[in-house]
TrEMBL record:
InterPro entries: ABC_transp_permease (IPR001851), ABC_UrtB_bac (IPR017779), ARM-like (IPR011989), ARM-type_fold (IPR016024), BCAA_transport_permease (IPR052157)
Name of protein: Urea ABC transporter permease subunit UrtB
Gene Ontology MF annotations: transmembrane transporter activity
Membrane topology category: Multi-pass membrane protein
Organism lineage string: Bacteria, Pseudomonadati, Pseudomonadota, Gammaproteobacteria, Enterobacterales
Source domain of life: Bacteria
Source organism per UniProt: Klebsiella michiganensis
């Protein structure tokens, strides 16, 4: 009943229900727990006796989400109305059809109106009137949501839908949705390829510089990446134990730490092993391969054979929704940006500094650069 007839005074209570902060006293009065204090949600300013939290079942939680969404449809905030309309596409019940029709007529924002049309069309799919079902199927064909595809699929089956015109319309709408989903899948795969390829590009860049400067095929290069990854994990664990308030920034702290640790190990290997094998490519290849095996076993002894988890901080969690079936994760976007910055820094170093000129000279003609 609340969902079908929203009233503004109920909003604080519904918000407390959704956030699971609702509490009640012995008199049945409602309060919202805000930290250590209680905020009154009714006429009684203070609780009578002790309060206890209100527990919701899954069914009540879904009903509360639907009721909150219908109440937010009358909000002055366009973002809240759009989110509410999106929620009602999944949570709307037949009793809300009249309200949705009313809000659709009154809505002025085009994006919110489109979301409301889809929510109403989902309700009209089960209408006994063929004309309403046909109109709903045609409207849902403009959606690119995978859930809509699953919703329309039964209407192409004669056992579920006896009307051939509706079955044909459902098939046409499904074709449109599948075309949009295909675009999202292709873009998603391309983005995943770019993010993975960017990491491999950094690895290849290091190999190219190492081989160009030293003439050494470093078979332990991948293990250097492994050491950098474990350095990042160690920084995360250290901050969690010693400075949890800085844990959200561990990737920024781990970046120079991983660079210094990996660089230090690389310098030690060059001075102790590789320096004595210059000019002998087969021996350096075998030596670095042996070093890679030693590093792998060392890591297994220190950290175990199982993978360890490097968790995303909150500011790298989530993503940007570009299409209904395409979300670009923030962590992969950050990887792409980082790789571009490293490439820019490398290019500037090689082309705009004296060190870069020396590196290019050694790479292009080692004998001439030694003069």
């Amino acid at each position: 009943q609340w969902a079908a007839a929203p009233e503004a005074p109920r909003l604080p209570l519904l918000r407390a229900l959704k956030s699971e902060t609702l509490q009640s006293d012995s008199g049945g009065h409602a309060f919202s727990k805000q930290g250590d204090s209680l905020l009154a949600l009714g006429a009684v300013p203070a609780p009578v006796g002790p309060t206890k939290p209100v527990r919701l079942t899954n069914r009540l939680r879904n009903l509360a989400a639907g009721a909150l969404a219908t109440h937010l449809l009358v909000s002055d905030n366009v973002t809240e109305r759009a989110a509410a309309a999106k929620t009602l596409q999944r949570e709307a019940t037949p009793e809300m059809a009249g309200l949705l029709q009313q809000r659709l007529t009154a809505e002025t924002d085009g994006a919110v109106k489109s979301q409301l049309e889809i929510a109403l069309a989902r309700l009209q799919l089960v209408s006994p009137q063929p004309a309403l079902r046909l109109a709903a199927i045609a409207l849902l064909g403009h959606s690119g949501d995978p859930e809509t595809q699953a919703l329309l699929t039964p209407y192409t089956d004669a056992r579920h839908e006896p009307d051939p015109a509706i079955r044909a319309a459902a098939q046409e709408s499904l074709s449109k949705i599948q075309h949009r989903l295909l675009l999202g899948d292709l873009l998603g795969q391309a983005f995943m390829g770019l993010s993975l390829g960017s990491v491999l590009l950094l690895a290849a860049l290091g190999l190219a510089i190492t081989y160009g400067l030293l003439g050494v095929i470093n078979m332990a290069h991948g293990e250097m990446l492994m050491i950098g990854a474990y350095s990042c994990w160690l920084v995360q664990q250290a901050l969690a134990q010693l400075a949890p308030q800085w844990l959200a920034f561990y990737p920024l702290i781990a970046l120079p730490v991983a660079f210094l640790i990996t660089g230090g190990i690389g310098m030690a290997l060059e001075r102790t092993v590789i320096r004595h094998l210059y000019g002998r490519p087969l021996e350096t290849l075998l030596a670095t391969w042996g070093i890679s095996l030693m590093l792998i076993q060392l890591v297994r002894m220190l950290f175990g054979a199982q993978n360890v988890e490097v968790a995303n901080p909150a500011w790298l969690s989530g993503g940007v929704q570009v299409l209904p079936n395409l979300i670009l994760p923030w962590n992969r976007l950050a990887v792409l940006v980082f790789v571009l910055l490293v490439l820019l820094f490398t290019w500037l170093t090689l082309n705009k500094t004296r060190l870069g000129m020396n590196v290019r000279a050694v790479t292009q003609n080692r004998a001439m650069a030694a003069c």
